[in-house]
Design brief:
The chain is α/β, with parallel strands linked by helices. Helix content is 30%, strand content 19%. It has a 7-stranded parallel sheet, with helices on one face.
Length: 280
């Protein structure tokens, strides 16, 4: 049996998003793998990610991290008490375990911070990523695109054992013959809309969503997740605000229905770790 130790920081820091979705699926599969003994390092502050809160983790062992401040915790090496046996440690936020009987396996999603962020956020993530890769015994990439990006930016990664594990959707996403828009989304029922899922950082290029609305009458925009609108955004789309609908905390089953009912999905990003779709 393989002993795997994982921290759970991402679920205290991210309510929803691509990184937490990947880790949720990853942990869920390990919980059901009879060849894995999973130990989860719980956080004192509690979780904000509802999928993880509702996940049945009784098959895992649990230990409590000893720091209440998540921002400090994500920048320090983990300390935990486990039997003196060979184990694998994986961090959801680029941490490294220094124990001799532990092998570190890091999962790299993208190099977004290195390409599009500035200041302390970029510097801190760059230092963490380099340290994590340097100390890793193995690397998991979420795509060939990410692997190529990381190897260019961090040449030391080329010497590490690595594997590519592509993101996988849950069984909640499937074709349905008959769909009914839930009451919560009654404002878009029967309307023609396009859908966008995710946050609205600059590299996501989401202003194009509002440009489409300005040019195409009778089209609505459905935004799933992301931050509250900024004053700059509100000014930008003020003329079409009645055709913009933002929803948060959307369960997978409901998101599946919204996808099916949509006229199309818009994917305007300049960069994503898993690559960009292109017409050939």
């Amino acid at each position: 049996m393989i002993n795997v130790i994982m921290d759970t920081l991402v679920f205290g820091l991210q309510r929803m998003g691509g990184v937490s979705v990947v880790w949720y699926q990853y942990i869920n599969r390990m919980l059901n793998d009879k060849n894995v003994q999973l130990t989860l390092l719980d956080i004192q502050q509690g979780y904000i990610n509802e999928d993880f809160i509702n996940l049945d983790t009784k098959n895992a062992k649990h230990e409590m991290e000893n720091n209440y401040n998540l921002q400090l915790l994500r920048n320090t090496n983990p300390v935990f008490d486990i039997p003196n046996q060979m184990s694998i440690f994986q961090s959801t936020y680029l941490r490294t375990c220094k124990r001799k009987n532990v092998k570190n396996v890091v999962m790299i999603h993208d190099i977004t911070h290195q390409l599009y962020f500035r200041g302390i956020k970029k510097w801190l993530n760059t230092v963490q990523k380099k340290r994590s890769i340097t100390n890793a015994d193995g690397i998991i990439y979420v795509s060939e695109n990410t692997k190529n990006d990381v190897e260019k930016l961090y040449p030391v990664s080329r010497k590490k054992k690595n594997v590519i594990i592509y993101n996988d959707a849950t069984n909640d996403y499937k074709c349905l013959k008959d769909i009914k828009i839930p009451e919560r989304y009654k404002n878009i029922s029967g309307k023609k809309y396009f859908i966008y899922v995710g946050d609205r950082f600059d590299y996501k290029n989401t202003n194009i969503l509002f440009d489409v609305l300005i040019k195409v009458e009778n089209m609505h925009c459905v935004l799933i997740g992301g931050r509250d609108f900024t004053e700059t955004e509100k000014d930008y789309f003020s003329d079409v605000k009645n055709r913009i609908h933002r929803f948060t905390r959307v369960p997978n089953q409901e998101l599946n229905i919204l996808y099916i009912a949509a006229h199309c999905m818009i994917f305007p990003s300049h960069y994503e770790g898993f690559g960009i779709f292109r017409n050939v």
